[in-house]
Amino acid sequence: MNLHEYQARALLKAAGIPVPDGDVATSPEEVEGVAKRMGGAVVVKAQVHAGGRGKAGGVKLAKSAGEARVHADKILGMQIKGLIVDKVLVVPAAEIASESYVGVIVDRASQRPVMMVSPAGGVDIEEVAAKTPERIFQASIDPRYGLLPHQATSLAFQLYREPQQVRQAATIMRQLYQAFLDAGASLAEINPLITTPDGSVVALDAKIVIDDNELERREDIARLRDPAAEDPAEVEAREVGLSYIKLDGNVGCCVNGAGLAMATMDLVKYYGGEPANFLDIGGSSNPHKVITALNIITRDPSVKSILFNIFGGITRCDDVANGIVTATANTKLERPIVIRLTGTNESIAVDILKKAGFEALTDMDEAVQQAVKQAREAA
Amino acid sequence: MNLHEYQARALLKAAGIPVPDGDVATSPEEVEGVAKRMGGAVVVKAQVHAGGRGKAGGVKLAKSAGEARVHADKILGMQIKGLIVDKVLVVPAAEIASESYVGVIVDRASQRPVMMVSPAGGVDIEEVAAKTPERIFQASIDPRYGLLPHQATSLAFQLYREPQQVRQAATIMRQLYQAFLDAGASLAEINPLITTPDGSVVALDAKIVIDDNELERREDIARLRDPAAEDPAEVEAREVGLSYIKLDGNVGCCVNGAGLAMATMDLVKYYGGEPANFLDIGGSSNPHKVITALNIITRDPSVKSILFNIFGGITRCDDVANGIVTATANTKLERPIVIRLTGTNESIAVDILKKAGFEALTDMDEAVQQAVKQAREAA
Amino acid sequence: MSIFVDRQTKLVVQGITGRDGSFHTKQMLEYETRVVAGVTPGKGGQRFEDTVPIFNTVGEAVAETGANTSVIYVPSRFAVDAMFEAADAGIKLVVCITEGVPVLDMTRVMPFLQERGTRLIGPNCPGVISPGASKVGIIPAQICLEGTIGVVSRSGTLTYEVIHQLTRHGLGQSTCIGIGGDPIVGTNFIDCLEAFEADPGTEAIVMIGEIGGTDEQQAAKYVSHEVRKPVVGFIAGQTAPPGRRMGHAGAIISGSSGTAKEKVAAFEAAGIGVMERPVEVVSLLQERMKGVGC
Amino acid sequence: MSIFVDRQTKLVVQGITGRDGSFHTKQMLEYETRVVAGVTPGKGGQRFEDTVPIFNTVGEAVAETGANTSVIYVPSRFAVDAMFEAADAGIKLVVCITEGVPVLDMTRVMPFLQERGTRLIGPNCPGVISPGASKVGIIPAQICLEGTIGVVSRSGTLTYEVIHQLTRHGLGQSTCIGIGGDPIVGTNFIDCLEAFEADPGTEAIVMIGEIGGTDEQQAAKYVSHEVRKPVVGFIAGQTAPPGRRMGHAGAIISGSSGTAKEKVAAFEAAGIGVMERPVEVVSLLQERMKGVGC
């Protein structure tokens, strides 16, 4: 789960990290008011779960409250990577003496959290990593000990020479690691971490990504989810335990298991089609999940054919068949559907489907080919 | 540093452990009032840093508030192992279905905290350990992971069969370990942990010993120190950084270093004397410490001779000599003093002492023999 | 022959009385897996299906039955402690089926298990099956066939699809392992490749990867240097939108973005036969196995 | 010859610019100990006494100077991190002079150092001196004499007293070690006995113990089985009131109350020559060393 910048800032602030003032606003008028209170010169920043906000025009410097209002008017309602901006963060324009990067992530290879810093902050850190990897410094964190003071100090010396700034940066790193842990994050970064002309070290922008598996035990963090900032279909899917991602194609896919779902999409592509979505109904499916899945797929106007690919293990094929029959009992499907089922209770499922007038296939390649062909014919 | 029972109970309660009601009182009238509020049947418990309170008559069951007052009248002012009781804890008399022991300590051999439980609670746990060691169960705690749930559950199954009680006891153990950590304790125990007739698990008595080295970073715990409950001389010594323990003999000892101090006391005994105290002036001594040390020793009426034994390393002999001279400049010593100094700045020290009319020895055995002899002659 | 589990496997089921635990224990018993004990705190002394003794703790289960392997079906909030408990009890192979274990918890679990010499498979995995010998986990036994192909995969149902293809064409399996798709798993591709290479009962290996991370790339390097048996592979997620599963910063450390393209290239560079479709596993294997004269 | 420190010792002083650190560094330099670096964060680039380079981190100090040993003089609230830092920098011997380190911190320090193969001496100890070769810590050099007696002790000044007696009577020392009197120390008696036994430059061993714990009893057992060189010992605290230094519960685990009486009995049972007074170290040693023909 992604947090908005303003939410991430609040978590860092709670952890003791110096973060400049900032207010969230949802209308140009409100932005103007906030900017006035802040003395006029502010930055208006789109709060949206997408990278590259700046390039997309979602971050603007204003010299006056009036200018802030004008910017806000443009930014609010803007689409960035398909997501509509419905709120902005207004912060005082900061005077920046230097910009660094500080971030902590879980590294899959070492199976540990890693704190990374770079004196090349304020820019895309992946580019720094690709072009000048020698400007990135890391400390591997033993999670049983946390980020040790000497590790933080050592990294801080890579950013600053001034002992006071070194101490401040080391403290911020330890606070960032604590915030990362407390939030159950898989990524927490400050970019840029700036020094101001008076020498103090301040976090100007923050990004935190939460491990979804942490949400069950962290109600306070789970409450930060902003459904308005996500695709409504993805939200609906998640609420019943489905995993759904909208894509650009026209073959609607409904599969059990993420790996098989991806393989199914790949096969759609292989046979010349384009998947309309990723949809994993998960392990122990029940008819209700299947109904929701089918509803989400059929609601997507770009879907031209529907493909079920179920390999029954824990998932029982008859459950899926019943779901399909129930979902289509009242509202007739307006698009062709291809159903492939194999594994647990396969024959029962085939009977159920046949009685309801559906055909059932057992071969994945055959099913995918049919679905692609039907989508092409319908398009 | 020892905590009083009532202080330990408060820490356990703060950690979430169920602890019965209880109030501290300093007068029989107050005890009667508390007992009345609690319904009459109470236990009055001396709050004093000494084991064996019960045997000494410091813990009494009262059937009525009036009886509680009578008991309190006896207990308040009572001496237990040389310490005067100036407050009591009043708790409602509990109905006890079973008594267990639960405690956590730092084990020197494994260099780890160890959680110990025994179904034989409510009695002296050392006796249980000596007589029926098979009734004590332990879990070694990796301090990087804490007491793991399965460890607590496994120990709890040694105390109870009822799943509800097992869960309660396991939770209490995890809370006890947390309280132990948070307090910077070297020992935290509940004895007895009881079950009440209605089946719930409750901590009836608590004992916590704090590692003195933790006090610097734990102001809240340091504030729990009760100087009224300690020997005033020991308090005074601690406040200037001396380590002093009053003993029964008549040779007052002042030594630098705990090991050498003990060896000096042993040598006093070896030559037929009895040390009046343990007194370690520590590493980098300054004249002020020496003055306080001498004041504490001379204030003890049982001291018949005074013995300094200083091996100069970090401690400079001249500092000690200056301290002795300053301390005795205005108030003449009324008891014989034997000074042994060797090591760093020994010759300067000897000069200082000679000028002030003191003799200085360099041999430890000789000095101890003289001090013992003088004490014997003065007695 | 097989790896990790076989007829010597004496299994304790952690969470045997739960919904998933009891369902799959029945399946494992049907497959004649040696399920010697179950654990559910508070149900010690009872028996599962009138046969398998239930204990309050894994320690007791091991002491009483000599269990050497455990499988975990407890809910996610208890899974971490279940892994700790198994390792503390001296279990040498722990298979954690439970999904939803936080990654930060796994960073603490791994050094704990390593210190105790305990191998973990999973979490969030379908487990292991050595057809004809032992099933530990949830891989459907009816799609498997005893044989000489080693299968290792990050996926669940996609693995079944591949096994199914193998079995339909008479290519039996020595062992099939689902290592799980979480960012941190106890056993990775290389661990399995090493074991398959050393196993005289395995003649060829099927590796099924996914987008994300660099496990497949490292495994490919390992194959090119250390594995002499034929290896064929598949990568799921060619069409997956980038960055939906892993944070971008991961790439800074690994120097890789974990795309399917990159992984396929690594496979090809290592001489691994790459399937474009799962169904190709059969023809590719037959071709490769002929090549080395198996 | 000697143990732990010698002319190969290249020392980095953690906290070199502090009050204690600078005082004792001068003393160590006077003794010609190879002090190659100092560390004080923020003073990197400066020099101590115009000679010893100062670094911001131990890692830099090790990289630049090849330091293999560190001595810690930082205040107690920084001591734990100083130990972590030294071990992380690859230092193999850390001598922590600082006193006042909480015991619970030490329970976390020890496994950290053990994983990295770092030996710790201390905390709260006077350090190590191999007379004529290297002094690391605060043991006064002027009381020492090069020779063949190994001295190991839990005390500070009591050790000096014993060393002083040895030197006065011409019994020089191979190495003198103060292991520290805290409940948890990095190096215990057995570690030192093992090293002395293996050191060809050591002919006899003096062990100075105290009341509390069971280190001396375990060391006595070790001596009876593993040490062939003559050993003499002393226990301080015969007259100490019981229970003033250690909690009673410690005895439940160790099965011992750590009294002087018990320790003396253990020494005697192991054939260790027990001094009643520190001064007896000389006569006892002479007697024992004659016995084995040294």
Structure at a glance:
Chain A has about 375 residues and is of the alpha+beta class.
Task: Describe the protein in words.
The complex is a heterotetramer, with two copies of chain A (379 residues) and two copies of chain C (294 residues). Chain A has 379 residues and is an alpha+beta fold. Chain A has three domains: 21-92, Dna Ligase, domain 1 (2-Layer Sandwich); 98-222, ATP-grasp fold, B domain (D-amino Acid Aminotransferase, Chain A, domain 1, 2-Layer Sandwich), CATH 3.30.470; 232-378, Rossmann fold (3-Layer(aba) Sandwich), CATH 3.40.50. Chain A has helices spanning 5-14, 28-37, 65-75, 125-131, 149-159, 163-183, 219-222, 232-239, 258-270, 287-299, 317-330, 346-355, 364-378; strands at 23-25, 42-46, 59-62, 79-80, 83-84, 88-92, 98-107, 112-118, 137-140, 185-195, 201-203, 206-210, 243-246, 251-255, 277-280, 305-312, 337-343. Chain A starts with a helix and ends with a helix. Chain C is α/β, with parallel strands linked by helices. Chain C has two domains: 11-121, 3-Layer(aba) Sandwich (Rossmann fold), CATH 3.40.50; 139-291, Succinyl-CoA synthetase domains (Rossmann fold, 3-Layer(aba) Sandwich). Chain C has ten helices and 14 strands. In chain C, the strands form two sheets. A seven-stranded mixed sheet of chain C has the order 3-4-2-1-5-6-7, sandwiched between helices. A seven-stranded mixed sheet of chain C has the order 9-8-11-10-12-13-14, with helices on both faces. In chain C, strand 5, helix 3 and strand 6 (93-96) form a beta-alpha-beta unit. The longest helix of chain C is centred in the N-terminal third of the chain and has 13 residues, at 76-88. The radius of gyration of chain C is 19 Å and the shape is globular. In chain C, 61% of the residues are buried. Chains in contact: A-C, A-D, B-C, B-D. Chains B and D meet through strand 7, strand 8, helix 4, strand 10 and helix 9 of B and helix 4, helix 5 and helix 8 of D.
